[in-house]
Amino acid sequence: MKPPALSFANVRHDYRAGVSALDGVSLDVAPGEIVALLGPSGCGKTTLLRIGAGLERQSAGRVALNGVTMADERAFAPPEKRGVGLMFQDYALFPHLDVKANIAFGLARGVDAGPVVADLLRRIGLAGREHDYPHMLSGGEQQRVAMARAMAPRPVVLLMDEPFSNLDQRLRRGMRAQTVELLRENAAAAVLVTHDPDDAMAVADRIALMREGRIVQCASPEDIFRNPVDLFAARFFSELAEIPAQVRQGRAETSFGSFAARGLADGPALVCIRRDAFSLRSEEAEFAAIVRAVRFLGDRRLVVLDVDGVAEPIEALVDARNDVAIGEKVGVSLDRTEVFAFPVA
Amino acid sequence: MQCGIGRFGLKWDAFLGVGAAAAALALAPVVALALIALRAGEGQWRHLAANVLPDSAYETLVLSAGVLAFVVVVGTACAWIVTAFDFPGRRVVETLLLLPLAFPAYVLAYAWLDLTHPVGPLQSGLRALLGYARPSDFRLPDLRTLPGAMLIFGLALYPYVYVAARAVFLSQMTNLAEAARMLGKSGATIFFRIALPLARPAIAAGGALALMETLNDIGAAEFLSVNTLTAAVYSTWVNRSDLPGAAQIALAMLIFVLLLVVMERMGRGGRSYAVIGRNMRPLAPRRVEGFAGLALAALVTLPALFGFIAPAAHLVYQAFLRLAHAGMPGEILAETGNSLLVAVLTTLVCVAGALMVTGGVRLMRSPLRRALLQISAVGYALPGTVLAIGLLVVLGGLDALVRGGAALLGAKPPGLLFSASLTAIVLALSLRFFRLATSKIETGLERLSPSLDNAARTLGRSPFAVLREIHLPLLKPTIAGAALLVFVDCMKELPATLLLRPMNFETLSTHLYGETARGTYENGALAACVIVAFGLLPVALLTRLGRRESEAREERS
Fold first, then answer.
1. For the purposes of burial, counting CB atoms within 10 Å of the CB of B86, is it exposed (0-12), middle (13-18) or buried (19 or more)?
2. Quick check: A79 and B462 CB within 8 A?
3. Could you tell me if B6 lies within 8 Å of chain A, comparing CB atoms?
4. Most buried in the list A141, B481, B504, B527, measured by CB within 10 Å?
5. Is B207 in contact with B72 (CB distance < 8 Å)?
6. Was domain A238-343 assigned CATH 3.10.310.10?
7. Same domain as B24, residue B65
């Protein structure tokens, strides 16, 4: 079996004694795999990326590329000796070099840069722009050139730090698709850091969700979305209505129904309902609610519901064609795959 | 986010080597001073403490206090007037006020002494005007007194405060001043309650630099008959050949210097000093029309008139007379050549060294490298005489070693290889002006995104290659600016050059010193003109920056 393209084994990083940015992280990235490091700011995801690139040296643990140790307690390979590509949040295009010289910067001496650069430019849709300077490019073009530059030397793994954060919403969607396509064509392994779950879901084969220097959960986008391991993981991907409940014999009981709560001990718990779980005016209604407020959002309609026995109003996102009136009493049913029970934190 | 690589152990490389060498060289003179001063017999110290130090210390203190008061009041007032009021000719005056920067204090002293000589143009003209026949009937008060010296130093040095205060007034206080206006406060209140407190750190820093220059000066004080500590160091060594004694006075001076460094540091708050702001929205100045406007314009032109226009015009006229009378003296060309040689060599040393040391700090960030950078820059605070005496001790020791070695080998002992040589001058000036280069280049580097370095590293470049391929091309204008500053300061430098030059090695500044010390003023005008002409170069740069900023201002409005 081929060794992982990039492997972190038990990596720790302490900025100062007692302040750790990474608290024992292990992660293997297979050749050709795209992994997203996802988490709120300060969770250590960028630090992990910099340790992988060799821009930072970990306090403990091992980093390996294609099975070869790059950094552990004894050895440390500086970034220029690793053959890792890194794409920066601000792109870091060299302002004094034109597009061609930027992309060719990492190529070995003696390699004819012309064809390599031309091929990459064609693939990122910037054919013929060799002699433009970075300031002449739009934000999206700069992003693509930065990516081409990082990929030109055919790195073992491409690391990307918030690759889409400087692009506006509209541009973002296109760039995500193009990035995946480019990565697949090159069969390069990639790790991208992002705080945006949409970026992660759109691009990654696997998502490593991080919090406070640890990986909380690492799974495919669908798996991590369907089966969040804890309240934090569930909250990170969508907004939740969190309703206090009591667990009795594996069921979480609320005033409006009981839900599966496998593995939870008897006692207080939270039932978490995604806003997409609701169907209104359902044939087989499970409980009744009164519409408190309605807001039209274009493709969806946000309905705020008062439910008997629940103190806080609950928000539901329903089909926009589903028009309801304020004060109306509606029958509600729930999609059980979007309802989770977690112990009270 | 930081750049560079953390957690390296102590790994030796070229960056660290240059940094360590620069720091060691910077510390050597200070350590040597302390050692030699300790070695001297107690008798000498008693004599110095009783007879030399009290007078010199007193005169230095009084002079410093007077200069400080002058530069703070004049510098701040001018800066405020040209930023808060709009009067006829404001743009021109704004620039004129910078011009005295081109005059080293000793050249200004020389020019004014010649100008106000009893049979000079000013007094003769006044006598003719007032109907007096002979010089003994009417005399202006003598410039060669403490108040006279305060005036000359003040005129030469107020731009340090002017530049610093103006930068603050232009860049940092617009919103606050507008808020104060909206709250119903008027000009005077805004100045005293907002502008002055905000600018106080910058004013303190500018004042500290002006005082450092005062302590550094050797020519002007002597021409103006003020017995400063610097003059005492110089005469103790040159006239009495008493190196330990000179070292002791020099050490005493370091206490003054230390106070100034603290004052400047606190003022700067760790930032580089003359940052003329970018992207700023200046205060909308208040229009002053008619007679009041003209009066204001005349008032703020005075410092420029006495600090630059009158003395410069006199020097040019004298130089012209001299040229018409005797043609171009050959020695001026040779001396200009010597000055250029010293300045170019020093500039190369400073810029190359500064690039390595600051680049090393950025690329391999480590506390050790940062500390070395700071140590290597201490020379900026050392008065030229103190630095020169310290270097004389170090280099004299080296020469003694060489002679001893030669004697041991039975060879003919060579002359002094280091003590009085071009190398010694270049070394002294490099130590003194190293910080000019490092602080400029550091500021330039700070403007480059750290990810540029990291990008180049992950694309296979070593730290040195990053310096060569990324920093160097991107910093070209910064490096040129740093080189210009160092170069011009070298052209103007007098005290260290005077003490360390080899026999018969004259530069423009030592020539001028010699002529003035001999009282043959008329022969110095040409050298003075050349020095001032070079001094105008960085002023031109400053005003160009100023223009760019005011153009941007107009575009926005």
1. middle
2. no
3. yes
4. B527
5. yes
6. no
7. no
- What residues make up the domain containing B236? 42-309
CB within 8 Å of chain B, chain A residues 138-197:
149-150, 153
Q: Which string of b and e fits B276-293 if b means at least 16 CB within 10 Å?
A: eeeebebbeeeebeeeeb
Using DSSP's 3-state secondary structure scheme, residue A176 falls into helix
In a domain, B510, yes or no: yes
Residues B280 and B163 placed together within one structural domain of the fold? yes
Inter-chain touch A106–B473, beta carbons under 8 Å: no
Based on its alpha-carbon atoms, the radius of gyration of chain B, rounded to whole angstroms, reads 25
| Architecture of the structural domain at A6-231 | 3-Layer(aba) Sandwich (3.40)
How many beta carbons lie within 10 A of that of residue A326, not counting itself? 11
Tokens of A286: 């499970």
Q: Of A224-228, A316-320, B95-99, B523-527, which gets the smallest average pLDDT?
A: B523-527
Q: Tell which phi-psi region holds residue A128, choosing left (phi > 0), alpha (psi between -120 and 50) or beta.
A: left
CATH at residue B174: 1.10.3720.10
Residue of B7, B8, B362, B458 to mutate, interface with A, max A Cβ within 10 Å: B458
Calculate how close chain B gets to A14, using CA atoms only, in Å. 11
- What ipTM does the predicted assembly reach? 0.79
Q: What DSSP line would sit under B310-343, residue for residue?
A: HHHHHHHHHHHHHHHHH---HHHHHHHHHHHHHH
CB spacing of A80 vs B458 below 8 angstroms: yes
Contacts of A85 in chain B (CB under 8 A): 458-459
pLDDT score, position B43: 56
Chain-chain contact of B458 with A78 (C-beta, under 8 angstroms): no
Interface contact flag, A92 B459, Cβ < 8 Å: no
Q: Which residue has the higher pLDDT, B134 or A52?
A: A52
Largest CA distance in chain A: 76
Which of left, alpha, beta for A298 (phi over 0: left; psi -120 to 50: alpha)? left
Phi, psi of B31 (to 5 degrees): -60, -45
Beta carbons within 8 Å of B503's beta carbon, 6+ residues apart? B420
- For residue A52, which residues of chain B lie inside 8 Å, CB to CB? none
Q: Binning pLDDT at 50, 70 and 90, where does residue B550 land?
A: low
* Contact (CB<8Å) A53/B454: yes
Number of alpha carbons in the 13 Å side-chain half-sphere of residue B118: 11
Q: Which residue of A has its CA nearest to B454?
A: A55
Residue A183 neighbours by CB distance under 10 Å: 21
Structure tokens at A120: 């990459």
> Which of A55, A82, A149 comes nearest B454 by C-beta?
A55
| Average confidence score pLDDT of chain B | 84
Residue B478 lies in a domain: yes
Nearest CB neighbour to B462, from listed A53, A57, A80: A80
Give A216 to chain B, closest Cα distance, Å: 24
B-proximal residues of A, 67-96, CB under 8 Å? 78-80, 82-86, 88-92, 94-96
B498 and B481 in one domain? yes
* Residuewise pLDDT in 10s, chain A (345 residues): 789 999 999 999 987 766 778 999 999 999 999 999 999 988 999 999 999 999 889 999 999 999 999 999 889 998 988 989 999 988 999 999 999 999 999 988 888 889 999 999 998 889 989 999 999 999 889 999 999 999 999 898 999 999 998 888 888 888 898 889 888 888 789 999 999 999 999 999 999 999 999 999 999 999 999 999 999 999 999 999 999 999 998 899 998 888 988 888 888 999 999 999 999 887 788 888 999 999 999 889 999 999 988 889 999 999 888 888 899 999 999 998 999 999 986
Q: How far is B448 from chain A (nearest CA, A)?
A: 10
Please count the structural domains in chain B: 2
